[in-house]
Amino acid sequence: MKTKLLLLSLAVLPLGALSSCGYDGHFRYSCQDPENWENEECVPPKCKVTGTCTSDILGWNQEDAG
User: Fold this and answer.
1) Measured distance CA(29)–CA(14) in Å, rounded
2) Is 37 exposed, middle or buried, given 0-12, 13-18 or 19+ CB atoms closer than 10 A?
3) Could you please report the per-residue DSSP string of 17-51?
């Protein structure tokens, strides 16, 4: 009985920790925000230097988003 309780608690604890990792309304990089896609720092060649172009961060170009 104690073993089952221990295993259950070990399974539930990580789920509780992961559920607290949610979206807080902020972007990690400013170029992830569609409102910033036209800003100078988010348009090549400037963003290529820092690796913050949309294609670098998201894996697709903003032109593909339509």
Assistant:
1) 27
2) middle
3) HHHT----S--SSGGGSGGGTTSGGGSTTHHHHHT
* Phi, psi (degrees; rounded to nearest 5) at 61: -85, 155
In the chain, where the domains are located: 29-66
Q: Are 53 and 47 in contact (CB under 8 A)?
A: yes
d(CA 29, CA 52): 7
Cα–Cα distance, 5 to 11 (Å, whole number): 10
In tens digits, the chain (66 residues) has pLDDT values of 888 888 877 777 776 666 666 666 788 888 888 898 899 998 889 989 988 888 888 777 666 655
d(CA 41, CA 48): 9
